[in-house]
Amino acid sequence: VLASFLLTLIYQKRYKGVHFWFLSNILWALGFFLISYQTIWHPYITIVSSNFLIILSLTLFNISISKLIQVKSNYFFDFLPVAFVLVFFIFLESYSLSSRIAVFSIGAAFIFFNTGFNLFKKDFKNKNIYFLGTSLFLFLMGIAFIVRFGSSFYNSDNYKYLIEAGNSSNIFFILMMAMKTGMNIAYILLISSMVFHDININMENIRKMNLAKDKFFSIISHDMKNLFSGLIWLSDNLLVKIREGKFDPNTDIVRMKMLNDSI
After folding, report:
1. How far apart are CA 96 and CA 41, in angstroms?
2. Contact (Cβ atoms closer than 8 angstroms) between residue 26 and residue 20
3. Residue numbers of the chain with a pLDDT score lower than 70
4. In whole angstroms, what is the distance from residue 230 CA to residue 21 CA?
5. Distance from C-alpha of 140 to C-alpha of 103, rounded to nearest angstrom
6. Residue 257, H or E segment
7. Taking the model in full, what pTM does it have?
8. How far is CA 225 from CA 174, 221, 229, 232, in A?
9. Which of 85, 116, 203, 221 could bridge across to 139 with cysteines, CB 3.0–4.6 Å?
């Protein structure tokens, strides 16, 4: 959260979407705070709230990347998994643990695939290994949640055992923390890539401006050299005539007038 806050302060005016990333990290932290208190507070309230905050955090992360790479966001489409998870967790409390895990996994996988696809399809001049790597990372996370979706039904007894043993929160915390760390590293690499791209563009513009400046001064100096060569010759000629007493007022005054006008 602190890292995203600092980067948001630095880049909020240059890159759109970084404030969504900061808000995403805040909601993620709040979600984990509620998870840690599910054995102390009402478990259903903490489960609904934590899952809602985490899935909303993933959605805001998706929106932040879309704005960063200048892909137009469809907010109805983006927030559809959030509404889906929230409605299920609120109104279908009686459903089994495996069903709740399955619903959350489908919503998270949907978001990851959407974000990864936006990164992959975007035709960027500065698209590099960071963009493709982040896209691959998000696709893998989506696949991981699809696997979690399947295992929630085929291995529901294992999840039940984890809950009863009190280990599910710790395991979930470690896995989701590792995932969020990877997401933040990927996001920072994307911003770094954008910054270096902008620096390269600025350097190229400066190089072109210097070339234009050099060409301009070359043209000006060439034109002025020809002009001053004539003026120097004319002034030298008049000076020689004055020194040698050959100055002709009838013609040389006109030449002096020409010299003065030219200068």
Report:
1. 20
2. no
3. 37-39, 41-44, 92-97, 122-128, 152-173
4. 68
5. 18
6. helix 249-262
7. 0.67
8. 75, 6, 6, 10
9. 116
